[in-house]
Amino acid sequence: MRSLSLGIEEGEYFVLTGPNGSGKTVLVKLIAGLLRPSSGDIRLAGKSIISTPPWKRHLGYVPQDGLLFPNRTVRQNIAFGLEVRRVNSKLRKARVERVSELVGVSHLLDRMPKGLSGGERQKVSLARALVLEPSVLLLDEPVSSVDEDARNILCTEIRSIQQRIGVTTIHISHNSQETQIVADRVGVMVNGTLRHILDPAEMSEVPVA
Amino acid sequence: MSRRQLQSESTRYGRSFDFLLAIPLAVYTVIVILLVSSLVLKITPSAILSAVTDSNILDSIILSFVTSLISSLLSVAVAVPAGYILSRNRFPGRSIVDGLLDLPIALPPLVMGLALLVFFNTSAGRWIDRAVEGGVFVYRPGGIVLVQFIIGCALSVRVMRSGFDAVDARYEDVAMALGANRWQSFIKVAVPAAGSSIVASAVISWARIFGLFGPIILLCGTIRGRTEIMPTTIFLEAQTGRIDVALVMGACMIIASMVALAIYKRIGGKTFS
C-alpha cells in the first residue's frame, strides 16, 4: 500500500476495483482495523480511528466466502456480534429476525452453514454485519463465491438493502457488470495506489492495469 | 456414480500392486494380534480374583488413573494457549522455543527423570520440594504427576499447534470485526474450532504418559500404597513370580488404551478450516 487519499460520503456506495494484488483487500482490512498502517490516518465522521481496535470501530465486515462460523446455526451466526456486546436475549432475537427478514434469510435461521449455497452464505454474512447497525459496511468481493447467474441478482438485492437503510458502503469487486449495478462511484487501485475515481459509466474509458 | 463406486472402479486395474503393498500391513497386524491375544488368553479367573481382592493392586490402578488424568488435564491447560501462540504469532526466538519443546518428545523419558532427580538435589529444587511438609515431588505422588506432565505436555502442545494451524485465522478476524475482543474471539471462535484437537491432545498425552515407568521410578520410586502405579506393579509382580497378576494388569492397560483410542477416533482430529 502506497500513498493513498480517499474520502467517501455518508450513505455512498463506493466500489473499489483493480487487478489482483493492487491492495484493495489490504485497504478494506486497514479500515476494519484488521491491519495497522505504518503511517497515515483513517477518519470516520471526522474522528480518527487509527488507534481504535477493530472491535470498537462499529463497522460491518463481510469477508470473501462469507466465513460463517461452522459450529453455529445461521441464527447464532447473525446474533454473534450482539452476543459479544451482551445485548439481552429478547432484543437480540428481535433484531436478528428483523434483519433476516430484510436480507431474505428468515427461512434459513435454524440451518447449519454447511448445507447453504454460496449465495445463501453471503446473505447470512451480510445479515450478520447489518444486525449491528454499522456506520460503514465493508464488503470484500461479496458475490465472488456465487455462480454467475445469481451474481447480478444478489448485487441488485445488496444495493436495494443499502439504499433502504442508507449505510455507507465500500465494496471490492473485480467485475465491471457488478460495479455498474451497485456503485455510486468507483475507485480503481493499481500497485497499492488509487489511480482513478470515476462514475460507473466512465469505467470502460479508463484502463484498469 | 458415487464416490465409493468411482474409487472401486479406479482400483480395478493393478490389483497385484495393492496386494504386494498390503503384505507388510498384514504381517504387522498379525504380530499385534498375536501379542495382545497371547497376553489376554493367558489370564485365568483366579488371577483376576487375586488382583481385584489385593488392596495394593487396586491402589496402584487408582493412582495410575488419577495421576495420568490430572497430568493430561494440566498438559491440555498449558497446551491450548501455548499452541495458539505458536500458531498465530511470529516472535524473536520462536524457532528456538519450537525446538526446545521437541526435546521432551525426542529425549528418552529416563533422561528426563534423571534431570528431575538432579534438579531436586539442588538447593532450589529442595526448597520447592519441601514447600509442603513431607515433600511434594520426590518419592511422592506429586512427583508422578510432574514427570507425566513434563513428558506429556510437549506432545499436547504439538497437537494443539497443528490444531490451531488447521483453523482458518480469518474466522478470528471476522469475530473481531463483529465486535469480539481478542479474548472473546479466542474463547468463542478459535477454541471451539479446535475442540476436536483439544480432545486429541488430551488423549494422545494420556496414552503417552499412562505407561511411563523409568523416569517415575527414578524420581518417586515404587513405594507400595504411595507411588506404585500400574507399569511399576507389572514390573514388580513379574519380578516376584506373580506373572498371572502382571498379566491382569497388562490387560487392564490394554483395555484402557483401547478406550482412549476409540475416543480419539470418534472425536479427535476433526477441525474446521
Task: Describe the secondary-structure layout.
The complex is a heterodimer of chains A (209) and B (273).
Chain A: E1 13-17, H1 24-32, E2 43-44, E3 47-48, E4 59-62, H2 74-84, H3 89-103, H4 118-130, E5 136-140, H5 148-165, E6 168-172, H6 176-182, E7 185-190, E8 193-198
Parallel strand pairs in A: 1-6, 1-7, 4-5, 5-6
Antiparallel strand pairs in A: 2-3, 7-8
Helix pairs in contact in A: 2-3, 2-4, 3-4, 5-6
Chain B: H1 3-10, H2 15-41, H3 45-52, H4 55-88, H5 94-106, H6 109-119, H7 123-129, H8 141-165, H9 170-177, H10 182-193, H11 195-210, H12 214-220, H13 230-239, H14 243-267
Helix pairs in contact in B: 3-14, 4-8, 4-11, 5-8, 6-12, 8-11, 8-12, 9-10, 11-14, 13-14
Would you give an account of this structure?
- The complex is a heterodimer of chains A (209) and B (273).
- With 209 residues, chain A is α/β, with parallel strands linked by helices.
- Chain A contains 6 helices and 8 strands; from the N terminus they run βαβββαααβαβαββ.
- In chain A, helix 5 (148-165) links the parallel strand 5 (136-140) and strand 6.
- The longest helix of chain B has 34 residues, at 55-88.
- The chains are: A alpha/beta (209), B mainly alpha (273).
- At the A-B interface, strand 4 and helix 2 of A face helix 9 and helix 10 of B.
